Amino acid sequence: MWCGVSDIAVRCKLFVLIMMMSNSCFAHVAKVFISFSMPEMSIKQWLQQAEKVHAQVYLRGFVDNSFKKTINQATLVIKDNSQGFLLDPKEFERYKIEKVPAVVFVDDNQESITVYGDVGLLPAAQLAATRAESKAAKEVIEKLT
Predict the structure, then answer these.
(1) Cβ–Cβ contacts within 10 Å for residue 23, how many?
(2) Cα separation of 47 and 74, whole Å?
(3) pLDDT tens across 80-137, in order?
(4) Residue 51's domain is classified under what CATH number?
(5) Residue 65 contacts by C-beta under 8 Å, 6 or more apart in sequence?
(6) Structural domain includes residue 49
(7) Residue 39 within any structural domain of the chain
(8) Is residue 74 part of a domain?
């Protein structure tokens, strides 16, 4: 124990803080919205794909309003990935995200297009690029192909 907090909780808290600081350096052209209610494998795949294009991954809030449960869930999916996530309900509100997974592609002019469904980042980007001629989606396609 360290100051009454388990080692895993400390590592996860530090990891989330580091991800918050390191990801603030990137202009995110894609934002991925997930939930721990999704299958674990799906979450891991979204994290891996997001890492390749420096997309930020968002969760709406805590699992069952519990920090401890959230840390436990995060440990299961983050241990195989270096990509982290942010807990940010305001981003869900900003882009009117009501279901997950969802990907928002944000262009330089702040216009955005949202794609819903567990289809993967590349198919989501391809759909956004053809439906809205999204520059952000085209950047994601270039990075993934």
Answers:
(1) 17
(2) 11
(3) 666 788 889 999 999 999 999 999 999 888 889 999 999 999 999 999 999 888 899 9
(4) 3.40.30
(5) none
(6) yes
(7) yes
(8) yes
Q: How many domains does the chain have?
A: 1
CA distance 94 to 81: 27
Closest CA to 143 of 50, 19, 44, 25: 50
Longest distance between any two alpha carbons in the chain, whole Å: 53
* Nearest CA-CA partner of 99 in 60, 46, 53: 60
Task: Report which of 62, 57, 115, 44 is spatially closest to residue 86, judged by C-alpha positions.
Answer: 57
pTM > 0.85: yes or no: no
Sheet arrangement for strand 86-87: 86-87, 56-59, 30-34, 102-106, 112-116
Closest CA to 79 of 44, 53, 50, 33: 44
Residue that is written with structure tokens 């702040």 in the block: 110
Q: CA–CA separation, 13 vs 9, rounded Å?
A: 6
- Structural domain boundaries, residue 109: 7-144
SS3 75: helix
In this structure, is residue 2 part of a structural domain?
no
